[in-house]
Amino acid sequence: MKGFTKRAILAACVGAAMLITVGCGSNQSSQSTQLTYNGSSTLAPVISKIATDFTEKNKTWNHADSSLPDKDITIYVSSGGSGTGIKAVIDGTADFGLVAREVKDSEKAKIKDYNEIKVGIDALTIAVNPENPLYAIKDNLTKEEIIKIFSGEYKTWNQVDPSLPNQEIIVVTRDLGGGAHEVFQQKIMGSVEVTKDAIQAPSMGALVTKVKENPYAIGYASYGMLGQNKGQIVAFKVNGVAPTDETITDGSYMIQRPLLIVGKGNMGGVADAFTKYLKSEEGRKVIHKMGFVPVN
C-alpha cells in the first residue's frame, strides 16, 4: 500500500458510520510488525487515539522496545460491533477483538488459548436532549419506568407523566449485533423485548446524534459519549443513582459493562509492546479523557 510512513496510517476506514483514523480494516496481521484491531464502536476510537499517540512517540517498533525490528509501526483499527470483533479473532481476520460486554463462554471456546485484557469500564446512560420535557420535571427513572419506555408500553410522553406533551417517544438503540444492546437487554429489559419501532443506530456515535437532534428521543448512550457531548445530551439517574466514575467503579450504578481486548494467547513481540503502552499511565489518561473509567 502506498503512503506508509513512520506514522500510523491515516486512511478512510469507516466502521459502523464512524471514521477510525489508524489504518484500514483489511487484515495484514501476517506481517509481524503490523497489528489489527476490530470490534466495538465504543472502544475503537479509544484504541485508535492511543495507537496514534504511541506511533507518534515511537515511529518505529525498536524505539518502543530495542529487541523489536527497526520497522514502521502500523496499527489498524476498525469497528463494527463487539460481536464482529470476536468473530474477526475466531476467523483470523484480526489479531484482537474490541469488546464492550462480557464475552460468552461459547465464544471463548472458539478462540484458541483465549486471552482478554480489561482496559476500562463503561456504563450505559439513559440519555436525552437537554430540552426533553421529562428531564425538565425529573432527573431520575426507575428500572420499571425505563422498561415501559423502551418496550413501547409508553408510546407518548404524556403516558409517562400527564403533564407532558402528547408527543411520540422516539426510542433509539444500538443495532442488535452491538455489545451495548446485549448489556441493556440483560441489565434492564430482562425477558421484555425493546419495541420494534425503535430506531437501531449502527454505532454509538450515530445513536447519540439521533438523541441530540430530537428533544422527544431517548436512548442508551455510553458514559464516554456523555462526557464527549457535554451540554448536548444529559442522563437520568437510574433507581436514584447517577452515572459517575465512583458509582461505575463501585458497581452501584447498575448499567455498566467492561471494555475488553480479546485475542489468542500471548502474541509477544509488537503486540506486547503496544499492550504495555495501552496499560501505561499515558494509555490510562486517554481512556479517562475520552470519558471512560480506566482500570489497573
Q: What's the CATH class label of the largest domain?
A: Alpha Beta
Low-confidence stretches: 1-31
Fraction in beta strands: 15-25%
N→C terminal distance: 37 Å
By CATH, the superfamily of the largest domain comes out as Periplasmic binding protein-like II
The DSSP helix count reads 13
Give the structural class. alpha/beta
Question: What is the rounded Rg?
Answer: 20 Å
Please tell me what the overall shape is.
Answer: elongated
CATH architecture of the largest domain: 3-Layer(aba) Sandwich
Give the helix level as a range of percent.
25-40%
Strand segment tally: 14
The fold-level CATH name of the largest domain is: D-Maltodextrin-Binding Protein, domain 2
Mean pLDDT: 89
Explain briefly what this protein structure is.
It is a lipid-anchor. Part of the ABC transporter complex PstSACB involved in phosphate import. The chain is an alpha/beta fold.
Please describe what this structure looks like.
Mean pLDDT is 89; it is low at 1-31. A hairpin with a 2-residue loop joins strand 1 and strand 2. With 296 residues, the chain is α/β, with parallel strands linked by helices. It is built from 13 helices and 14 strands. It folds into two domains: 13-121 and 258-294, D-Maltodextrin-Binding Protein, domain 2, CATH 3.40.190.10; 123-256, Periplasmic binding protein-like II (D-Maltodextrin-Binding Protein, domain 2), CATH 3.40.190. It has helices at residues 44-58, 61-64, 82-91, 105-108, 133-137, 143-151, 157-160, 179-189, 204-213, 223-228, 245-250, 269-278, 281-289; strands at residues 13-15, 18-20, 34-39, 74-79, 96-99, 114-128, 140-141, 170-174, 199-201, 217-222, 234-235, 237-238, 256-264, 293-294. Strands 3, 4, 5, 6, 8, 9, 10, 11, 13 and 14 form a ten-stranded mixed β-sheet that branches. A two-stranded antiparallel ribbon has the order 1-2. It is found in: Cell membrane. Residues 28-282 form the PBP domain.
